Amino acid sequence: MVDFPDRISPLDAVAEPGVFGTDTNSPKVFLSENLCGSLIQVQAWPDTISVVEKALETLTKLAVPKAPETAHSENVSIIQTGPGRWLIDAEVEGLEDKLRSKISAKNGAVTGLTHARVVVEVKGPKAAWVLASGIAIDFSLKAFPVGTSQVSHHHEIGVTIHRTSEESFDLYVFTSFARGIWHWITTASSEVGYAVS
Amino acid sequence: MSGFRLNLRDGLGRAVDHDSKINFTFDGKNYEGRKGDTLASALMANGVSIVARSFKYHRPRGIFSAGSEEPNALVTVHSGPRTEPNIRATELELYEGLEVKSQNRWPSVNLDLMAVNQLPGKAFSAGFYYKTFMGPSRPGHKATQFWWFCEQLIRRAAGLGKGASQADPDKYGRMNAFCDVLVVGAGPAGISAAERAASAGAKVILCDESAVAGGSLLSSPELLDGEPAFDWAEERLAELAEHENVTVLTRTTVQSMFDDNTYLAVERVADHIKRPAKHQVRQRAWNIRCKSAVIATGAIERPIVFAGNDRPGVMLADSARRYVVEFGVSPGKAVCVFTNNDTGWLAARDMAKNGVIVEAIVDVRKDVPDNIRAAGEESRAEIFLGAAITATNGFQSLSGAQISEFTETSGEVGRKLKKIGCDCIAVSGGWSPAFHLTSQQGEKPVWDAELQAFLPGGAISAWHGAGAMAGKFGLRHAFRSGEEAAVKALADAGLGEGDSDVPRIEGDEIDYAPAPVFEINSGGKAFVDLQHDVTSEDVRLAHREGFISVEHLKRYTTLGMATDQGKTSNMSGLAIMAEARGKPIPEVGTTRFRPPYTPTALGAIAGESYGHLASERLTPMHDWHVAEGANMYANGPWLRPESYNRSGESVEQAYIREAAAVRKGVGLVDVSTLGKIDVQGPDAAEFLNRIYSNGFAKLPVDKARYGLMLREDGMLFDDGTTWRLEENRYLMTTTTAGAGQVMDHLEYHRDVVWPDLKVALTSVSDEWAGVAVAGPKARNVLKGCVSDCGVSNEDLPFMGVQKANIAGIPVWIARLSFSGEMAYEVYCGAGWGQELWNVLMKAGKRFNITPYGLEALSTLRIEKGHVAGPELNGRTTPYDLGLGGMVSSKKNFVGATLLKRDAFHEEDRLQLVAIKSIDGQRIRGGSHLVKGNKDEPGRSEGNTTSTCFSPELECYISLAMLEGGAARYGEKIYATNPVRDCHVAVEVVSPHIVDPDGGRMHG
């Protein structure tokens, strides 16, 4: 295992732990940053989807989602972000090279996005309410069930959202826009009180 | 009007807390109200009759209605940056400490000296603005100047309130909501629709503009399922609010209906308290997307136009009734009801029942049904049938009314019958369905001759009208139509019909159809539009002068403009125009409504988006730049360091120092902002070869190449280097500002033009931090910190690309130069960007490494003649910029065909050159290139594009586009900028000022 230097998140300087906003005794939103070891995008060609799915299944031991859903084990999540396209979120570092060795250019493309996204976890009883204030998708459980993901945007900035439970969401946001998104989430959450950990 | 608070008791004044006391001020004077009062009800309870002055004539005006249709009682609340004008007193909820000012008066609302405007009243008639002070618009013409002078005075003399000039300190929120059925209006029809929809399992949002939902049920005398309507509504609404599928939003006005069943509603979250609590939003804009909607917005009572109808004390009859029943406030000591329909009689009865003295009921009709006559008798009022009010008396407010005979069919006014003393005339001219929302969609309303009203036209989106809005007047029809509309909406949403739950109703059954009387034309000033001081004579004048179209009528007279958008005046104005034209009303037509339904704070629309226009992108080294005192500058969406100014240094001094340091030693610059696109696939090489004008098919692995990208029309689009990292994997870089457009361009061609190519395109702009190390000492810096890769000219030649390692950080190093110096671009994962920067700074310390910003970066590339955004401006071809050698003749590529157009190859096209100042004067950006001196400059033969002071030449230089410029080196011309009064002698030179043979880059 190569020992890489620690990564610096754009949120390090702004995500001060503590409880903020209206109701500091009983915050309704809980925010944290999830540092993923590897975040890799895998794309198959239209005629090689099944080949890539098989390669991913072999590597992750997960059933690759065929709809905008998520398959996950203890340390790997596979989020389908489009037909024949997946985002692999894994605790282990250096997954990109491993995937590249298994998926040749003939069958697909492997692109490392570990540094390109910041993963913000938003959870709590008002998590969906806060997200709905800036993202124009239906956050009801019926329209956005647990375990599924949606690709949307906030102020024209793309964001991939993975509903990990009834009241928690992982937001995959562009690193360069992360502070802007964080500013929005904390501003919106301040109305109901939020905790940062 | 001398209103007063009635003795509050059970069943009377249910909207207010009988035991509370709220202190507020109006024009600095202290008053007391009750919790639940609106400002209007509280002022009325305190006997305040004049609350405003009219727009044009400054005539005293009182409270006219009890809702959002109010034309008169507009006030200004708060002060300083929170100042908000034109708030309707009829909607403003009272709270402790509320401070309100009247507006459009001087010095006070009771004694307004500007009322002198009434004296030349006829001069201010319809079309005043268009007829007066007309003059040629030629600048300097005396008539025009006089008009401008007068316009300022007129604008000061007329108008509504004044807004704040400071920034709004409040927060505004936004919410995106989705539902099966949106119900607009929580009156009987709305409640009925919401209940029915909820019973079918639909997700329902129910909005009501009032603080307390219930609509007409709040003052309705009927019993529903044996209990008072107010109680019934309260219980049902509480049940709805508890329903897991239902969201009830009060104080929420649905302002706009858009395409695809999208609605904008504004919730007044904290307008009923002194100021929002910390972290609380003042208002929240709801974007509601529904599968179907039930529009149950009710109807707005309209007045009858008669002489003297604007005196304080004249108000709508049902509003007068509501003040009595809901707020326990009598609108006057002696009320006279004037009506053309049955509802006026019920208003008289309900007011009298609750202790108000009703002196008379005046009805234009010759006869009324027995039950209505009985209601009149209950009111103990004197009854006048076939009569009308033809004049009013009073100084500041109403003191009496003249009642005369009136013939409904001919509109003739007969002999005077009686003069009645009264301080309130409650007038009802029938009801106009509030179909504003559906009208916003362009749906043409249809005329209902019986109701004498327009009804909403056919739906072009999924909505269904219910209740009075759809012409279904009366509680029975309201409940029934609410359910029917809900069933249709449920079908739209693909849901079942749900269960019916219409209450048993005990109470009046009346005919809501009015007599077709809109005006009593007895002479005297009769106002149609109270808010904009438009009289019935103004409408007739517009007709006489040919402005007979309703659209022209509106614009010529301003009828139906301003904050109320003619909610109480449009119908009367239309009827008077129809009468003048001798045509039925539907043939004259009606104007449509546009969003929003009521005035909306700009803050609510802007939401959180203030202070900046778009989200900002920050590089991984952003905090370092800021800590080092860099001026951060917007470049596309990114913030970049403009320059790192030392103490006392100007931007120009800083960039000259930074650029010189690069030329003489070494500098480093954050290039993380460059667009970066991962291009992969077996057809990636072919794809790039088609995208770029120069060849990419044979680019070797570990090599980079500068590429030109053209639009389909042959114009340059973007440029950048693309690195071949592996056989089928490339890293394309683009300009900072062009990254998004390039990505769109690539995806379009991949998906639409060449779908057979297997190419994956992914933006990796955020994956990589980039640092350019430039200058003759650049290699020395890298030598001190790079491992796993040599940096000698042999190991890493010009345009070479290598994987390497710097202090444990995996990096890509490309030997590229934008500055013209020996330079390397080092890329690493963004999370390590700051660490990489620190290591490079440390390694460069002994070489006096200098961080440089965007200005120095630009200076270096201008000296080198490298093009950037100002030259890639969408109007230049590769040939124009001296890049014709990069246009391949051996392959096809995007833009190849149209690049061959003759016009693109003419010798006198604007071509890239550089110019340098001959006498040291500064060349200003945006200068034109001319041959003549300052007095006779002659025509423009070109323009500057990128300008700077060149540390290398120690003079001002600029890249420029000059007609036939490539053949004009050595020519002496001028760079003129008349706006900045600059006319600088310059010499035309080759754009490659520094290192023209490339020796430094390749060394």
Give an overview of the whole structure.
The complex is a heterodimer of chains A (197) and B (1003). Chain A folds into two domains: 26-35 and 116-196, 2-Layer Sandwich (Gyrase A, domain 2); 38-112, 2-Layer Sandwich (Alpha-Beta Plaits). In chain A, 20% of the residues lie in helices and 35% in strands. Chain A contains four helices and twelve strands; from the N terminus they run E-E-E-H-E-E-E-H-E-E-H-E-E-E-H-E. Chain A has helices at 49-60, 95-102, 127-132, 178-190, and strands spanning 18-20, 29-34, 38-44, 70-72, 76-82, 85-90, 108-112, 117-123, 149-154, 157-165, 168-174, 194-196. In chain A, the strands form two sheets. Chain A has a seven-stranded mixed beta sheet. Chain A has a five-stranded antiparallel beta sheet with strand order 4-5-6-3-7, with helices on one face. Chain B has 1003 residues and is an alpha+beta fold. Among the domains of chain B are: 4-118, Ubiquitin-like (UB roll) (Roll), CATH 3.10.20.440; 172-299 and 433-503, FAD/NAD(P)-binding domain (3-Layer(bba) Sandwich), CATH 3.50.50; 674-764 and 867-899, Alpha-Beta Plaits, CATH 3.30.70.1400; 906-1003, Beta Barrel (Elongation Factor Tu (Ef-tu), domain 3), CATH 2.40.30. In chain B, helix 11 packs across helix 13 (570-581) and helix 17 (651-664) crosses helix 22 (854-864). Chains A and B meet through strand 7 and helix 4 of A and strand 9, strand 41 and helix 21 of B.
Summary keywords:
heterodimer; A: 197 residues; alpha+beta; Gyrase A, domain 2; Alpha-Beta Plaits; 2 domains; 5-stranded antiparallel β-sheet; 35% strand; B: 1003 residues; Ubiquitin-like (UB roll); 7-stranded mixed β-sheet
